[in-house]
Amino acid sequence: MSAKLAAALLVALLLPVPSMAAQVIVVNGDPPGVGFNDPTPAVPVGGNPGTTVGEQALYVFQTAAQIWGHRLVSTQPILVISFFTPLTCTATSAVLGAAGANWYFANVEPAVGGQALAPDTWYPAALAEKLTRQDIVADPNDPYEVFSVFNSELGKPGCLTGRGWYYGVDNNEPSTNIDLLAVVLHEFGHGLGFSVGPTSSNTGARALGFPSIWEGQMLDTTTGKRWIDMSDPERAASARNNQNLVWAGQKASNVVPSTLAFGTQVNVLEPASLGSAEAVPASFGPQLRPGGVRAALVAPDDGGGGSTRDGCEPFPQPGLIAGNVVLMDRGTCAFTVKVKNAQNAGAVAAVVANNTAGPLAMGGADPTVVIPAVGITQVFGAALRVAAPALVHVGRNVTVRAGTVLNFPRLYAPTGFAQGSSVSHWDTSATPNMLMEPFINLDLTSSVKNPDDLTWSLLRDIGW
């Protein structure tokens, strides 16, 4: 007896692919004159030949489909119903898009040449069909394996005003725009199976009591248990075990050394009793030099404002900072503002302490920032502030890859549960940034596999 579930409103994207690869087909769900059919004139950009907004958006979807389809193997077409339509917006924030498997299946008998699914286990539609070698989605009114929706209003007044989509397919988006291709590839990943699926990442509860195929590869390094062996409350706790939930699939682990950079750490040389702690390089500014930075760490007050420790105002005594590493706290202003204030005072590097549990990943863009910056935990930051001035070395940890525990890549599990983000994403401590992190980054490429990314290897771990 088979079982199926309709997915909640998530979203992803896809399209045609080469003959030996999976066939991913984007189905345009928009009515005439809007979305993918928007006739507004547009100038071709970044390898996208479309001459209207609608044509350019659809071309990006098709390109993402080709990229994913080239990496996947399936005899079954993958239909993705897609909409380019207004979504929730304000002038300073917006829902970019959403995607996910349209159906989940369990206990489906394989067709000739196919393989059986694990008993009483949920699989996303596209993967279930690939493994069993048959079209399981038999509903003529809803025949799609993936459902996707994206925000057509981005950048317009009142919808993340001024920060519209970049429709090029060359990963050359300006810092003021958001790369639609990267977001589409990301949501693609969710629709294909980069998700804990019907299992609630918030409560740990399972649909019909069945685990998802993901749960066998999710390991809590604190308890030593995999999600498939946990109770609902244990899964809920693990989803909030910041930095300690990892993907333990062998294929993803095998390519960690060829994909992720060595980790970064702040090592306290004096007083040596403080030891060292993990740090996360900022997404802006230069990379640390091979030898790192060795200097005194200072924690001077800034010019006032809401806090004298956040670095949001120019430092009034640059003489105390010149040639040193500056410690600041997270909060109040953008990370780039903090680091630029430290740079203007003569600092050689900046360290920013989190205001919640876990290492801090700092996003943003400012080409005028020319000193390296790293984020650290709240606890380590407090200890450094007490010890300042301290002699520190900020550099690489050549025994550990960034964003991993025991060579297993971390999953995003912040202490404060983030609906829609927790569990079904890579952790933000990964370096370089990964496609399936919960936040968009400017340095993403269009590759979904090693040596650029771990996502394809994770999908292989679940059966792709």
Question: Helices and strands in order, then pairings?
Answer:
Blueprint: E1 3-6, E2 24-28, H1 53-71, E3 78-85, E4 97-101, E5 103-106, E6 123-124, H2 125-132, E7 146-151, E8 165-166, E9 178-179, H3 180-192, E10 218-220, E11 225-226, H4 232-238, E12 245-247, H5 250-254, H6 256-259, E13 262-270, E14 276-281, E15 293-298, E16 325-329, H7 335-344, E17 349-353, E18 373-376, H8 378-387, E19 390-401, E20 404-405, E21 408-409, H9 455-461
Parallel strand pairs: 2-3, 3-7, 8-9, 15-16, 16-17, 17-18
Antiparallel strand pairs: 1-5, 4-7, 5-6, 10-11, 10-12, 13-14, 13-19, 14-18, 15-19, 20-21
Can you describe this structure?
Residues 4-19 have low confidence and may be disordered. The chain is globular. The strands form six sheets. Strands 13-14-18-17-16-15-19 form a seven-stranded mixed β-barrel. It is an alpha/beta fold and 464 residues long. The two termini are 24 Å apart. The protein has three domains: 3-192, no CATH class; 207-258 and 403-461, no CATH class; 261-401, Glucose Oxidase, domain 1 (3-Layer(bba) Sandwich). The longest helix is centred in the N-terminal third of the chain and has 19 residues, at 53-71. It has nine helices and 21 strands.
Please give a handful of descriptors for the protein shown:
single chain, 464 residues, alpha/beta, Glucose Oxidase, domain 1, 3 domains, seven-stranded mixed beta barrel, four-stranded mixed β-sheet, 21 strands, 21% strand
Q: What's the overall average pLDDT, rounded? A: 93
The largest β sheet comes out as:
7 strands, mixed, barrel
Compute the number of helices: 9
Radius of gyration from the alpha-carbon trace, in angstroms:
23 Å
Distance between the termini: 24 Å
Helix/strand order, N-terminal first = EEHEEEEHEEEHEEHEHHEEEEHEEHEEEH
Indicate the proportion of strand residues: 15-25%
Helix content: 10-25%
Main sheet: strand order: 13-14-18-17-16-15-19
Please count the beta strands (DSSP E, at least 2 residues each): 21
**Regions with pLDDT < 50 over 5+ consecutive residues?**
4-19
